[in-house]
Design a protein that fits this description.
Order of helices and strands: HHHHHH
Mean pLDDT: 88
Oligomer: single chain
Largest sheet: none
Helix content: over 70%
Structural class: mainly alpha
Shape: globular
Number of strands: 0
Number of domains: 2
Radius of gyration: 16 Å
Length: 120
C-alpha cells in the first residue's frame, strides 16, 4: 500500500504542478479507495495543499513572472475564510458522509462539463 500511495502521489503531484488544480480532486478518491475516511482524506489533502505541493510550484511560476501577488492575496483571503467554514461543517458532522460524497461528485461533474464545453 505504501509504494502504491507514493507512486500515485508522485503522478498526482506532477498533475497538480502542471495544471494548478487542487490535489483534493485527485487525492480524495485515491485515499478513500485506500480506506481513509472522507474527513481523513480531506485533512491529508489540506496538508498537501500547504507546503508540499504549493510552495515549490508557486516558486517556479513566480520565477517566470506568472504570479500576481495582489490577486493571490484576495483569493487567499476568501479561501481561508471558506476553508474555515467548510472545515467547521465537515468536522462537526453538519453534513453526513453520503451527502459529502454527493456534493463532491456533483462538483466534479459540473467542473468536467464546464471544462469540456468551454475549452475543448
Amino acid at each position: 500500500m505504501i509504494i502504491e500511495l507514493f507512486t500515485f502521489s508522485l503522478i498526482i503531484g506532477a498533475i497538480v504542478g502542471l495544471l494548478g488544480i487542487g490535489g483534493g480532486i485527485l487525492y480524495l478518491p485515491l485515499l478513500v479507495h485506500y480506506n481513509f475516511s472522507f474527513q481523513q482524506a480531506v485533512a491529508i489533502s489540506l496538508f498537501l495543499n500547504t507546503i508540499p505541493n504549493a510552495l515549490p510550484g508557486l516558486y517556479l511560476y513566480y520565477q517566470h513572472g506568472f504570479f500576481d501577488f495582489n490577486a493571490g492575496i484576495i483569493v487567499a483571503s476568501g479561501s481561508i475564510l471558506g476553508g474555515i467554514v467548510g472545515a467547521y461543517l465537515g468536522t462537526n458532522n453538519y453534513i453526513d458522509d453520503k451527502s459529502l460524497y454527493r456534493i463532491y461528485t456533483i462538483l466534479l461533474l459540473f467542473t468536467t462539463v464546464y471544462m469540456y464545453l468551454y475549452y475543448c
